[in-house]
Amino acid sequence: MATDKKVTRVSGKSTSDSSRPAFVPTAEAKGQASKFRMYAIILWILAFIAQIVGIWFLSKYAPLTTGQRIGLIAILAVDLVLLIFGSSFWKKANRFNPPSKASALFGIQSQMGVIMAVVCFLPVIIMAIIKKEYIVTAIAALFMVGGGLASADFNPASQEEYAEQITEVETLTGQDFVYWTKSGTKFHLYNDCRYINTSKTTEIFEGTVADARHEKNITELCSACKTKVMKEKGITDEQLQEAQDAAKNALQNTELE
DSSP state, 188? Predict the structure, then answer.
């Protein structure tokens, strides 16, 4: 039974090449990642400039009047907004062109937003302490922690994770093709799955696993869809695990070459 909901195709192309040793982003995805990283860097530079203005403000006017203190806090708020928006672009770039966990820079690339939160606030915190502006110090520290949490990627994308997810879907269905909804947290193998084909659903998206990560950073396969297709095709848990292990080994071998 097919769904009666609007089904929207996302740009990626499905594939049935289950022998692919590693996840390789398309040229379009790499271009999108480069664009988002450029946006992130520009916004972070502006955030750093806002901090420099704040440091100059402290060095010139401290001790601050109430009005000056409010003005400085407003500058730091601009710093925070620029930081968070820059980090959102950086996280999205990583979903389009994810780093490899084997890379020594994986943690840095995945959590660059957290690093920038420190870079964009720690110097002004130090200056505020030197100038004995403790209210500014507390607020800047709060902004740094809040900005760091907002900038952190708690589910960072990686080439290995993409490869495993794609292999799982290809082993089950023979192609890299899934469905998801705007508010959903899992991708599906059937567009009439009871979890997405409901009265509340107005539109279902279809595309590759990578497309689902690009749009919603969805990382989990619907268990109902998985159970259904495994039963229909007679695929055992052992066979599925063997396919995933083979893909993981192939990826590791490719990285060593």
Answer: B
